[in-house]
Design brief:
The termini are far apart. It is built from 21 helices and no strands. The N terminus is likely disordered. Helix 4 runs antiparallel to helix 5, helix 4 crosses helix 6 and helix 18 runs antiparallel to helix 19.
């Protein structure tokens, strides 16, 4: 009986992974078919796609094996390894963003190379106990080398007219090594917090941010700050990338310093702990401001103040946000209680109330004050990182209270030393806005997480009977997801007075995204918004 159950579970898991893997393949096909390949040589993308298709069955077989409980202890439990998304999610997102923008060719070339490198290394790492280790290793690395050379040769003009093929390939190799090092660091320092696919997505994203920041600095060194219009138009990107890199370096340095035991437990929870936190983040904050000012010759503080307060619409949105947060705080204070004694439904309602709050905050911000929302997300991410460092490292007098509050809302995915739920929610809403696009595409995260995911959770818990194969999600919950997402898109279009791409396409997008939300074991707050964003960009 047990063997039958295991066999059935493995079969259903394999079916789920196969259906899930079809979704990024569908999105990639739509992007290529509708807009062509956004780099100078189609053979690059054809080589990369063929390489991915050749290794996809291997990826799925390994994912099924990990799903049966043999994944390394460094990975987040209760999920497959996510290798498919680690290979495809970043290239798909960059591909969708690069439509009509030649400035993003370097990002596309780098994302293709990092994707191929991640896939090759991940498959090779699983072969060490194989009887055909040598033959399969040669096949994997020769395929990777051919793919990297092709991408480097075809994409050499992406890094400047004077960049030859050898230099282009060297830059791709450097980026691949950097993303591998960062992925390993993420899995080592934050065990059980990410699957390898999720860690790969974050590592590739950080590498792209670093590469683009270096290109901006290179433009500054080559051309100076004379082109004021250029820096004025790129100021929001420069500030965002500087903040992201500063936060990563600050948090990593602070964690390593605290790991040395330089402060005892009592000192950490006192003023010294708070001073250590403030000195590290404050110091890097000053460095970031100085670097942005040097690069652009624009005062970043003044620019941020003008962005926030430069128009009546921005001031009105700021007042609205403050009022909404005040109301939410009062509601929480009035309904404060011991969550451990609440029903499972009430816990879900309290968790999903933050999704609804995100939708109420961010939809007006995007429609009436997009530059403000763009930078507001960056400030919110910075605040979340500082608070999480305070909680996880037990720094300052408020660390215990923050930990008690955060622990009320964790779920099975928060198995590691950091609480990731609020980061995923914020990034899921922010990434489509940062990547750009029309109002509906930019609102992909807000609508999918703030509206549809909340509806799916409540409908599934109250009415769910039929479950998807290999998952705990219900078909009824997915129907609620699709219907609420379509209604939310219709509301946004009605407020804009627009018809968009047509109801049939929006319904198809809602169904595809709803099925993905039901099937994926990766964090849906990351995967679903980016896939919805790419679909809407492909069909726009």
């Amino acid at each position: 009986m047990t063997g039958e159950n295991c066999s059935g579970g493995s079969r259903h898991s394999g079916q789920r992974l196969l259906y899930e893997a079809c979704i990024p393949a569908l999105i990639l096909t739509l992007l290529v078919n509708r807009y062509g390949v956004p780099i100078n040589n189609n053979s690059t993308a054809l080589c990369w796609v063929a390489y991915m298709l050749a290794l996809t069955p291997f990826v799925l077989r390994l994912a099924r094996r990990n799903d049966n409980g043999t994944q390394p202890k460094a990975y987040r439990p209760g999920a497959d390894d996510g290798a498919v998304w680690g290979s495809l999610l970043v290239p798909i997102s960059v591909f969708a963003t690069s439509i009509g923008s030649a400035q993003l060719y370097p990002a596309m070339v780098l994302s293709l190379s990092m994707s191929a490198t991640f896939t090759a290394y991940h498959q090779w790492s699983q072969l060490r106990q194989s009887a055909r280790y040598v033959e399969l290793s040669c096949f994997i690395w020769i395929s990777w080398l051919a793919c990297t050379i092709t991408i480097g040769y075809a994409g050499k003009s992406a890094f400047g007219d004077t960049c030859g093929a050898a230099r282009s390939i060297a830059m791709l190799l450097a980026a691949s090594i950097m993303q591998h090092a960062w992925r390993s660091e993420i899995l080592r320092s934050l065990p059980r917090s990410f699957t390898i696919g999720e860690a790969a997505v974050f590592a590739q994203g950080l590498t792209l941010v670093m590469a683009d920041f270096v290109l901006l600095m290179s433009h500054r060194l080559q051309n100076g700050a004379r082109d004021f219009a250029y820096w004025e138009s790129h100021m929001h990107v420069l500030c965002l990338e500087a903040i992201v890199l500063g936060l990563w370096v600050s948090a990593t340095m602070l964690a390593r310093v605290m790991a040395t035991g330089v402060l005892g437990k009592r000192a950490r929870r006192g003023i010294l702990g708070l001073a250590a936190l403030g000195s590290v983040f404050g110091g890097f904050g000053v460095l970031v401001l100085a670097l942005v000012s040097f690069t652009s010759h624009i005062n970043p503080i003044r620019w941020i103040l003008v962005t926030a307060l430069g128009s009546p619409a921005h001031i009105a949105v700021l007042v609205y946000w403050v009022a909404l947060l005040g109301v939410a705080g009062c509601v929480y204070a009035l309904g404060h209680g011991d969550v451990s004694e609440s029903t499972k439904l009430m816990l879900h309602i309290k968790r999903k109330s933050y999704h609804v709050l995100a939708a109420l905050m961010f939809v007006p911000g995007l429609m009436y004050a997009r530059p403000l929302l763009y930078m507001g997300f960056a400030v919110a991410v910075a605040g979340f990182v500082v608070v999480e460092c305070m909680r996880a490292l037990d720094l300052g007098p408020c660390s215990a209270s923050i930990n008690a509050f955060m622990r009320r809302f964790i779920d099975y995915r928060d198995a590691g030393p950091v609480v990731t739920a609020h980061f995923y929610l914020l990034l899921g809403c922010a990434l489509p806005v940062w990547l750009g696009g029309d109002s509906v595409a930019s609102l992909a995260g807000v609508l999918a997480l703030g509206v549809a995911d909340t509806a799916a959770s409540l409908v599934g818990m109250r009415l769910g009977r039929v479950r998807w194969p290999g998952t705990t999600k219900t078909v009824e919950g997915t129907v609620g997801f699709c219907a609420s997402l379509l209604a939310a898109i219709g509301t946004v279009l009605w407020l804009k007075g627009d018809v968009g791409i047509g109801w049939r396409w929006y319904a198809a997008v809602s169904v595809v995204v709803g099925v993905l939300e039901a099937l994926t074991e990766q964090n849906d707050n990351l995967v679903v918004p980016l896939c919805m964003f790419a679909l809407l960009r492909a069909l726009a």
